[in-house]
Specification:
heterotrimer, A alpha/beta (315), B alpha/beta (183), C alpha/beta (426), A: 315 residues, alpha/beta, Rossmann fold, 5-stranded parallel beta sheet, 4-stranded parallel beta sheet, 9 strands, globular, C: 426 residues, TIM Barrel, 8-stranded mixed beta sheet, 18 strands
Chain lengths: 315, 183, 426
């Protein structure tokens, strides 16, 4: 093929496991690449032949509708073949080890595995033993790199930059892999991050990641450019992390009144699915400041970019 | 050190593009339904220049689109580092249009094959024509150009490079490089 | 019948002999220690350049028999113990069924005698089936051969039941060994709660879970004027509390494991399930405190908590992988490398922590020192031998340890049980 004078970039990565491992340059490249794929998603024919003949498996040990659909669409729009496997964590304790599962997939000559698991480290363990690529679609409370990348893409699309922005992450930080991945990514790209939530849902020593911690949402709202709300699992109340959901909604939920002191161009984000009336009111979720649906749209583009970067060329 | 030979200078390039612009108008009987699509990166620049020339000649601004063919390349699995993907910008409907695809160097034909596939995903134009600044031969696919700036017979060991002010920050010219190790 | 150890540099808990001696063993007993002994019909072991210690005693291992013989058996566990230099091991009762009746105790002792590689003393459960509901028949267990009871794997959480257990055990002359962990505080945490768990996003348990039960037990034995032994201490706070209790004359003893004075919770950074252990690996500060506790005697002895598991138990995600690591064959090397070589312990202190103190705590008056009239249980150590831990070298039935590839200094050369060589390095 004629030399099109394309800039060739260094991307040696075989897996995406944790944003902790990615350099600022690598994150920038993913976000830049995602722009082109966003254009593809806007076409009538939303499909390019780039990954024709590649096989991609989604291996989800936790139920998920959105993330899985987003990955599947991304793979399909790149013309890869996709298979979905819903595995239960309990079946694993009944004899089949994680490695058995991995080796079975490998025997089918799968090129890339997208894995979600309730326990941190499973994607790394698979990556260690597989020849193909592994993408972490969420492991335990540790990492959800593609969610953080799409969040950053969405912020960058709105503000034109990430450096210098102040991002507030609100809610159940303790159990949130979305929060951890966003902290890694946002800090690398030069944002300031403040975490907000009740102390029972704030992990010990989180300050080591270079973030501020506040227990007062009103105070945080006044300062930030982006307010990222996390989903609150209703079971947390049963486990006594919270006195009641009502009290959580009152002090850590976002509504129009609380936003009255916010910056005018403040944006609201949420990884979904939202608990309306708990983390945020409907008028906020559907309001002008909400980027929640942009996040969903961008998710497909960012995941296409990742699949392209991992599978687009000879391995 | 590979040898460098200059084949075209700034003026030659301008005259060639002017002639191509005239030929495009002649063959398409004016600007009706005419659209230009440049292939990234230098084809896009050439498309914009042709657009300006058409405007100068006919007083009409025809739509220009930019096509990135990376995702349609047939050699992705044989190269080890990814080309950076750029956005494709075609903000007009190509359905039923007369498309002139523009690129700088016409070589194996594989880039044009990729571009045709890409355009196909955007709709069904009335026809697609091809304009190139340089045709260096060595086709590997049954594709020919409708408008050619200059035919340059080359060997496979040579490398033809188009330098344009907009993309390279240097004066327009076409050079040929001897590459001992092949393309 | 007789065994003569020549050129022995004897390390007892109270003294490291300046000059080498010969040790003559007859009928399982040390009969004579002198500079040069002649015994024509005795088998001879030359201990030149070696250290000769009283047979090591590990009062906390898991033999897995009965019920989990695919992980370890009395036979393979004994082989592992002999290779690790242990002439007495005490095996925990969390088998299947639980060691909570005389029949199982007698069965294990009988099998250990048949194997004949190490002296095995079963530890009975404190509560039937380790269910934290009813006390076991303590007097009968004592009669069957138990010297201590424990619900190891978990605490006796019910404080009233623990009170009764302590009072009754006093009459039965049984030592209670408490695994200190508040199950509600631990929840489903599989590692130490702290900076590392926060970064790794793994479920964590607070160190508090250990210290609250230790504090409770101290109050119980203080009130009842009795004693308790604390299993596998891992945290600074626990060392501090135990030190304070001892300073008050409270009869508390405690132990620590090599992995807890060698590794920190950062061993989980690569998600190695072999580093999943309960109690979990802790912080660097805790590791220092454990070493300090072993140095000043707050922690009386070193035990392995040898916990064999199969590959299938470990090749799982960290939530589901089994807790524990094997330790019998690496204990001496790790203790010498991490403690003696780094001047935390002297050789005599090592003999104290690994033989004399456990013998004293359990009440084995014939063991724990090399003296005339004592049992001829002797461990000969090559203190300068450098070696690397490899899977091929391990004789335990299970191979679960995070220490592969680790370079150690010091290794058991010969193990002698009641005057017979049961292990000799080749």
């Amino acid at each position: 093929m004629a030399d099109k004078n394309k800039k060739v970039i260094q991307w040696d990565r075989r897996n995406i496991l944790d944003l902790k491992d990615l350099s600022k340059e690598e994150i920038d490249l993913v976000l830049e690449t995602a722009k082109s794929f966003k254009e593809v998603s806007k076409r009538d024919v939303k499909k390019v032949p780039t990954l024709r003949g590649k096989s991609v498996v989604t291996l989800f040990f936790e139920p998920s509708t959105r993330t899985r659909a987003s990955f599947e669409l991304a793979a399909k729009r790149l013309s890869a073949d996709t298979i979905n496997i819903a595995a239960s964590q309990s079946s694993i304790s009944k004899g089949e080890t994680i490695l058995d599962t991995a080796r079975n997939l490998e025997a089918m000559n799968v090129d890339l595995i997208i894995v979600r698991h309730g326990c941190a480290g499973v994607p790394d363990e698979l990556a260690k033993h597989l020849k193909g690529s592994v993408v972490n679609a969420g492991d335990g409370c540790r990492a959800h790199p593609t969610q953080a990348l799409l969040d950053m893409f969405t912020i960058q699309e709105r503000f034109g930059k990430i450096e210098g922005l102040h991002v507030g992450i609100v809610g159940d930080i303790l159990h949130s892999r979305v929060a951890r991945s966003n902290i890694w990514g946002l800090k690398k790209l030069g944002a300031k991050v403040t975490l907000c939530g009740p102390p029972t849902l704030m992990p010990i020593g989180i300050e080591q990641m270079g973030v501020d911690v506040s227990y007062d949402l009103n105070e945080v709202i006044e300062k930030v450019d982006v307010l990222m709300l996390l989903r609150l699992q209703r079971e947390r109340q049963k486990d006594n992390f919270l006195p009641s959901l009502r009290e959580y909604a009152k002090y850590f939920g976002v509504n129009k009144k609380k936003l009255s002191k916010a910056k005018k161009d403040l944006v609201i984000m949420h990884p979904g699915p939202t608990n309306r009336g708990l983390e945020l009111s409907s008028e906020i979720a559907d309001g002008d400041n909400s980027l929640i649906l942009d996040q969903v749209t961008n998710g497909v583009a960012v995941r296409m970019a990742i699949l392209y970067l991992l599978l687009g060329t000879k391995t | 050190m590979p040898e460098l030979t200059q084949l075209m200078d700034k003026d030659l390039i301008r005259r060639a593009l002017m002639r191509i612009s005239h030929e495009i108008l002649e063959k398409n009987k004016g600007t009706s339904e005419l659209c230009l699509v440049g292939i990234r990166t230098r084809g896009a620049v050439l498309a914009e220049r042709v657009q300006a020339m058409v405007q100068e000649i006919e007083g009409v601004s025809v739509p220009v689109g930019i096509l990135d063919i990376t995702l349609y390349r047939d050699d992705l699995t044989s190269i080890s580092a990814q080309p950076v993907v750029h956005e494709t910008l075609i903000d007009f409907d190509i359905e039923g249009k007369k498309i002139v695809l523009i690129d700088d160097v016409f070589f194996t034909g594989r880039t044009i094959r990729a571009a045709l596939n890409a355009l196909n995903d955007f709709g069904r134009p009335a026809h697609i024509q091809l304009a190139v600044l340089i045709d260096r031969g060595h086709r590997e696919l049954p594709i020919r150009a409708d408008f050619v700036g200059k035919n340059i017979p080359t060997s496979l060991q040579q490398n033809v490079k188009v330098i344009l002010q907009e993309t390279d920050g240097d004066e327009d010219r076409v050079i040929i490089k001897e590459n001992k190790n092949g393309g | 019948m007789s065994l003569l150890i020549k050129n022995a540099s004897i390390v007892n808990a109270d003294k490291h002999e300046k000059n080498t001696q010969d040790i003559l063993c007859e009928k399982g007993v040390i009969v004579k220690i002198a500079p040069s002994i002649k015994a024509d019909n005795a088998k001879t072991v030359d201990a030149k350049d070696m250290l000769v210690m009283p047979g090591l005693i590990d009062m906390h291992i898991h033999m897995r028999e009965p019920g989990q013989e695919h992980k370890e058996t009395v036979e393979t566990g004994s082989m592992s113990a002999a290779k690790g230099g242990f002439t007495t091991v005490m095996c925990m009762p969390n088998t299947s069924p639980v060691i909570d009746n005389a029949m199982i105790v007698e069965g294990i002792i009988k099998e250990a005698k048949r194997v004949g590689l190490t002296n095995v003393i079963p530890i009975g459960a404190i509560t039937k089936g380790q269910k934290d509901q009813e006390l076991v028949d303590m007097m009968e267990l004592k009669e069957a051969g138990c010297l201590a009871l424990s619900d190891d794997g978990k605490s006796v959480v019910n404080s009233q039941l623990m009170r009764m257990a302590l009072e009754y055990a006093k009459m039965a002359d049984l030592l209670l060994i408490e695994h200190c962990e508040d199950p509600l505080l631990s929840g489903d945490g599989i590692m130490n709660e702290g900076k590392t768990s926060t970064l790794l996003g793994l479920k964590a348990q607070p160190s508090l879970s250990e210290s609250v039960i230790i504090a409770r037990d101290i109050e119980l034995i203080h009130y009842l004027n009795t004693k308790v032994h604390i299993a596998h201490v891992t945290i600074k706070r626990a060392v501090d509390i135990i030190r304070f209790a001892k300073s008050q004359g409270i009869q508390i003893t405690a132990e620590a494991c090599p992995h807890h004075f060698t590794l920190t919770d950062e061993a989980l950074n690569e998600f190695d399930t072999n580093a999943k252990v309960n109690p979990p690996l802790r912080t660097p500060e805790d590791v220092e405190a454990i070493k300090e506790g072993l140095k000043d005697g707050t922690l009386d002895c070193i035990v392995t908590d040898h916990a064999p598991h199969t590959r299938e138990d470990k090749e799982l995600d960290l939530d589901h992988a089994a807790y524990g690591m094997i330790g019998l064959e690496t204990s001496v090397g790790l203790t010498i490398t991490e403690l003696v070589d780094k001047k935390v312990l002297t050789w005599t202190q090592m003999a104290e922590r690994m033989s004399h103190a456990p013998a004293r705590i359990i009440g084995l008056s014939q063991k724990g020192s090399i003296k005339e009239g004592m049992d001829a249980d002797i461990t000969i150590i090559d203190p300068k031998k450098e070696w690397t831990i490899t899977k091929e070298d391990i004789v335990s039935k299970s191979k679960n340890t995070p220490f592969y590839g680790r370079k150690l200094k010091g290794r058991v050369a010969t193990t002698i049980l009641t005057g017979k060589v049961v292990y000799k390095e080749t």
